[in-house]
Structure formats: C-alpha cells, structure tokens
Amino acid sequence: MDNSTFVTRFVNGDDGTTLHTLTLTPRRDRRAVVVQKQALGFVSLGDWGDATGGLSATAKTLKSTLAARPWSAATQFIALIGDNFYENGVSNWDDPQFEDTFESHMDFGYDLPWYAVLGNHDYRQDALAQVIRTRINPSGRWQMPGRYFSPPIFHS
Questions:
Q1: Closest by alpha carbon to 36, among 65, 3, 77, 70?
Q2: pLDDT tens digit string along 58-112?
Q3: d(CA 125, CA 85)
Q4: 121 SS3 class
Q5: Among 49, 51, 78, 74, which Cα is nearest to 63's?
C-alpha cells in the first residue's frame, strides 16, 4: 500500500466491538503532485461521551485495538469528533463529567494529545467550558484550544 491509499478503521456497535476497515485508493492523475510524503496516523472517536451507556466497552475495545494493531505506532493523536458529554454537555471547566467520562475511561498510557471538537450535545450547557479546560491545563491530554482550531500537528 503506498502513501496515497487512505485506510480507516471503524469501531462501533452497541458493545463497541465491531471493527470495520475501509480502504480507498484514488485514481492516479498524472498531473497530481504529492505534497505530503509522511503518513498521518490518527484515531477518531465520536458520539462517545455517555458515561451511563457503553462507554466502558468502547474504551476497552479502543485500547485493545490500539495495542494490537501494527499501525498504532504511527498514531500521532486522537480526534474526539463531538458529543463528548451526553446528554447535555458540561456545566463548567471542572464538571465531574470530565473525570467520569474522559479521564477515567480514556487513559490508555499513550502519550498522545486528544484533540476535541464540539458536537450538538456539547452546546446544550457551557460549550466553552471545554475550551477553558484546555487553557487552564494546556499540557493535559484534553486539547480544545478554541471552538475552531487547527492542531499543531498540521503546522509542522
């Protein structure tokens, strides 16, 4: 597989154990110029923030998937793509849901940043609290420097 092939793996299902792989290889255009020669490896997780639902199974599956797959060595960050806290977001930067949902379930021992964006459920209370948490603890795993941002990984 060359660096123009896009591979994504999905972990889903109510029990968080179904793994799907999608591989896309674009048609070669002779005029195309390869700009990026390095692979960008990341994991994305959305609609995950329900501490009362299947979060434990999802976290366990994500952890074992990262540990068991050879591609995990290339993982540079984890993208949390919204609905980080069900049902109604968080009330402030120190809301117990940060501990109950994120810190207690999503610490796998990897030294990776977790870049989060907001989903519709996150706007139901204080959406900016997720940004403020990053500003209070800028070196923490939880990273949401603004409502709109480009992670530093894309600036190197």
A1: 3
A2: 888 888 877 776 556 677 888 999 999 988 999 999 999 999 889 888 888 777 8
A3: 10
A4: helix
A5: 78
pTM: 0.72
Determine whether 36 is exposed, middle or buried from the number of CB atoms within 10 Å of its CB (0-12, 13-18, 19+): exposed
Distance CA 66, CA 80 (A): 15
Return the percentage of the chain with pLDDT > 90, whole number.
29
List 44's β-bridge partners, or say none: 79
d(CA 95, CA 76): 28
Buried b / exposed e over 56-71, threshold 16 CB at 10 Å, is: eebbbbbbebbeeeee
CA distance 92 to 141: 18
- Mean pLDDT value across residues 6-11: 52
Whether 17 and 36 have beta carbons less than 8 Å apart is answered as no
Q: CA distances (Å), 140 to each of 89, 103, 106, 149, in order?
A: 20, 10, 13, 17
